[in-house]
């Protein structure tokens, strides 16, 4: 085992924002079922890294007051999941860069809801981060089935990475020492999950240690928190999938809740009470501030962290001024003395199809600033709570939020071209207003070199540049083969969980050139971000039969690409360069069904990537790169300045395996490939197969074919496409989707999985 590699890995995890990091040797899962364990995903694996982010105490102690449906600051758990995903994915990339295999696992929401092939578990993830946190020595199990750390109790969220790196495992906690069976989870669970339908106790046996907890009915646990049913409604004595669906039809949805098992639980030595502050126990801090204002260096560090990550504006105000105006923000945080606003502007996009939507990315950056500002202040001993500008609050707090929203509008203006949030804290902070002016362009450096350097700093694995003319000529060479193909689009008209009806419309696809997106376009910057090789290698294979790691790679690669693109556009805009980011500049691709919403599929930006010198086209029409094979995703940025164009890759050598291979064509589950197109690039011709988009979309975009990934989630959806795919046929097929698993579909491009440039082929 390597102590140095372990230290470097933990250092990387902490730099990415983890509060706790633990390592487990994979043998600690010896008693776990292979269908949901690290050995099932990577049999040759050696270690599992588990990272944790701590909920700020304000999120827990102030969130859910009044009603667990009124989550308030606790809503920042959604950001925590996004941040854990980023930590997992980037730590996986770090381990790959060290020469090791790695499978990053998503933080949440990719599950097998039902029992699967003998796996006696519901809501079963590819592996349980809760159990993994115990295996990594970070936690023990509480009675309610949540993991408790000595530092924070259950106020943590976890994520895991499996690797064959020889890391040094951390010692296990003794077991059954943190939960004192105080009964708070029994008294406050609104679904009675810890008192009704409890089927005895479960024991985790790990290297001589025992960790026991209640064997709950997780359908009951999910009544409100997952399915949004009213927590105050009468709950039947038996809760299962059919009961959930029946009650949704009868009652409708009220909305999710915060987990009261988390809110009211703390280890005895961390537990104190102040019922005027919160109905939940108050966590005893390890640090007690010696004065009301933090050290200047600490304040500067928190500010620098937010601005360096991409926040555009930070405004800090002392609440004495608010109080003098008769504005009371104490319902949002009882001991609040300062408010910190965070604003991130969203870049504008092309008016044509496939512009990158920076709404989520801008929100992620803003939330990063607000959350880590609050977390940093809490580590100094102050209370703090991050907030969205929203009204999911108890009634007594609504006037306070309205005042905050009005103040934000005065500071930053109205409009949906920005993302705004805030943090309240008991710390007395120095008032300030900072606008993050981007650094000027260094005159001594070449602009092209600067663009590539910045793109890599912001997270891209590959960066290539093409002239807009080269891309336009390439697009024109395939226009006759790909333009005007009929495509079907849907809009959901049903209700979440309740009905699967859609409205279907026809359109004719039109290919685009850079100049159509941005008049005056001169260059195209293409950023590439890899998907982990092992996420493809394990897809549907190995004892775990998992699609989750690949579905995670689909969406997290896009999240990180959009982050890199937004940061680069911020800098280019400051230099007077107009830039638009595109999910699929030329519009020859489509989307894949995914738990985080439709994701641009493996064909996206393929022509731009080849023109930028990053790879070639395979026979199947997706990009193969020298560095990462086909395990790569791209975003294209059209700019109105001239950059130095990269040379084309060795187009023919990079597709030598395609010569006598038709695996991609033969493994398409719906036989969507038809005919050939010829891409012409500077005197070279690349032939590739054309995709019948309606057939491909049936399987991948709409997730109707089990063999395209859905089968490994246990989904009941499996509707073969008819010979003639019409709007009526598609609308009828969509009504047959699995009522539970249609909400979070996991589709994979099996044509690409059959490619020897993607992964090892065994058939």
Question: Your description of this structure?
Answer:
- The chain has 763 residues and is α+β, with helices and mostly antiparallel strands.
- The protein has 23 helices and 29 strands.
- Strands 15-16-14-13-17 form a five-stranded antiparallel β-sheet, with helices on both faces.
- The protein is globular and about 75 Å long.
- The chain starts with a helix and ends in a 10-residue tail after the last helix.
If helices are DSSP runs of H or I spanning 4 or more residues, what is the number of helices?
23
Estimate the helix proportion, in percent.
Answer: 25-40%
| Counted beta strands | 29
Rounded to an integer, what's the Rg over CA atoms?
26 Å
Distance from N terminus to C terminus (CA atoms, Å) equals 35 Å
Structural class designation: alpha+beta
How many strands, which pairing sense, and closed or not: the largest β-sheet? 5 strands, antiparallel
Q: What is the arithmetic mean of pLDDT?
A: 96
What global shape is seen? globular
Q: Quaternary arrangement of the chains shown? A: single chain
Strand order of the largest sheet: 15-16-14-13-17
Q: Regions with pLDDT < 50 over 5+ consecutive residues?
A: none
Strand content: 15-25%
């Amino acid at each position: 085992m390597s102590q140095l590699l372990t230290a470097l890995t933990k250092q990387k995890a902490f730099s990415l924002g983890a509060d706790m990091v633990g390592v487990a040797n994979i043998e600690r899962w010896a008693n776990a079922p292979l269908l949901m364990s690290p050995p099932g995903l990577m049999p040759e694996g050696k270690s599992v890294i588990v990272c944790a982010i701590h909920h700020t105490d304000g999120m827990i102690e102030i969130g859910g007051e009044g009603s667990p449906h009124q989550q308030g600051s606790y809503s920042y758990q959604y950001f925590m999941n996004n941040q854990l995903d980023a930590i997992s994915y980037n730590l996986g990339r770090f381990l790959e860069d060290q020469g090791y295999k790695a499978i990053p696992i998503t933080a949440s929401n990719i599950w097998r809801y039902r029992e699967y092939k003998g796996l006696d578990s519901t809501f079963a993830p590819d592996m349980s981060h809760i159990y993994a946190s115990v295996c990594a020595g970070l936690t023990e199990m509480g009675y309610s089935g949540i993991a408790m750390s000595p530092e924070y109790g259950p106020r943590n969220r976890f994520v895991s990475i499996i690797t064959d790196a020889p890391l040094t495992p951390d010692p296990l906690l003794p077991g059954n020492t943190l939960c004192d069976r105080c009964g708070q989870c029994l008294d406050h669970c609104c679904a009675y999950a810890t008192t009704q339908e409890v089927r005895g106790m479960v024991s985790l046996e790990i290297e001589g240690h025992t960790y026991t907890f209640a064997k709950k009915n997780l359908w009951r646990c999910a009544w409100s928190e997952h399915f949004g049913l009213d927590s105050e409604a009468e709950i039947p004595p038996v809760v299962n999938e059919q009961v959930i669906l029946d009650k949704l039809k009868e009652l409708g949805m009220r909305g999710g809740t915060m987990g009261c098992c988390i809110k009211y639980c703390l280890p005895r030595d961390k537990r104190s009470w102040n019922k005027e502050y919160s109905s939940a126990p108050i966590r005893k801090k390890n640090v007690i501030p010696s004065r009301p204002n933090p050290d200047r260096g600490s304040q500067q560090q928190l500010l620098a962290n937010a601005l360096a990550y991409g926040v555009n504006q930070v405004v800090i105000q002392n609440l004495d001024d608010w109080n003098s105006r008769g504005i009371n923000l104490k319902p949002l945080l009882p001991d609040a003395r300062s408010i910190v606003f965070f604003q991130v502007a969203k870049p504008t996009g092309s008016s044509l199809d496939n512009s990158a939507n920076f709404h989520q990315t801008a929100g992620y950056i803003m939330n990063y600033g607000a959350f880590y500002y609050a977390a940093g202040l809490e580590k100094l001993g102050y209370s703090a709570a991050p907030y969205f500008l929203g009204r999911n609050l108890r009634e007594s707090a609504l006037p306070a939020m309205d005042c905050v929203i009005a103040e934000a509008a005065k500071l930053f203006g109205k409009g949906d071209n920005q993302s705004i949030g805030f943090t309240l804290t008991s710390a007395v902070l120095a008032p300030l207003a900072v606008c993050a002016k981007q650094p000027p362009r260094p005159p001594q450096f070449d602009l092209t070199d600067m663009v590539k350097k910045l793109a890599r700093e912001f997270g891209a694995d590959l960066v290539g540049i093409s002239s807009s003319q080269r891309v336009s000529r390439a697009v024109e060479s395939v226009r006759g083969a790909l333009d005007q193909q009929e495509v079907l689009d849907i809009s959901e008209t049903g209700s979440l969980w309740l009905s699967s009806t859609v409205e279907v419309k026809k359109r004719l696809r039109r290919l685009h050139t850079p100049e159509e997106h941005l008049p005056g376009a001169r260059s195209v910057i293409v950023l590439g971000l890899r998907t982990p090789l092992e996420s493809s290698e394990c897809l549907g294979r190995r004892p775990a039969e998992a699609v989750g790691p690949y579905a995670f790679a689909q969406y997290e690669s896009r999240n990180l690409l959009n982050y890199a693109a937004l940061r680069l556009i911020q800098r280019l805009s400051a230099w007077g360069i107009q830039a638009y980011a595109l999910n699929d500049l030329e519009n020859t691709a489509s989307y894949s069904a995914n738990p985080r919403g439709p994701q641009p599929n493996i064909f996206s930006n393929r022509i731009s990537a080849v023109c930028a010198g990053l790879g070639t086209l395979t026979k199947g029409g997706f990009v193969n790169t020298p560095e990462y094979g086909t395990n790569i995703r791209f975003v294209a940025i059209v700019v109105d300045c001239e950059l130095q164009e990269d040379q084309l890759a060795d187009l023919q050598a990079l597709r030598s395996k395609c010569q006598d291979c038709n695996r991609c064509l033969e493994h398409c589950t719906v036989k969507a490939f038809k005919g050939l197109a010829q891409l012409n690039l500077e005197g070279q011709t690349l032939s590739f197969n054309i995709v019948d988009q309606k057939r491909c979309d049936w399987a991948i975009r709409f997730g109707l074919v089990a063999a395209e990934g859905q089968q490994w989630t246990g989904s009941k959806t499996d509707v073969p496409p008819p010979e003639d795919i019409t709007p009526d046929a598609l609308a009828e097929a969509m009504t047959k989707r699995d009522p539970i698993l249609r909400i979070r579909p996991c589709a994979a491009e099996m044509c690409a999985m059959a490619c020897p440039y993607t992964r090892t082929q065994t058939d």
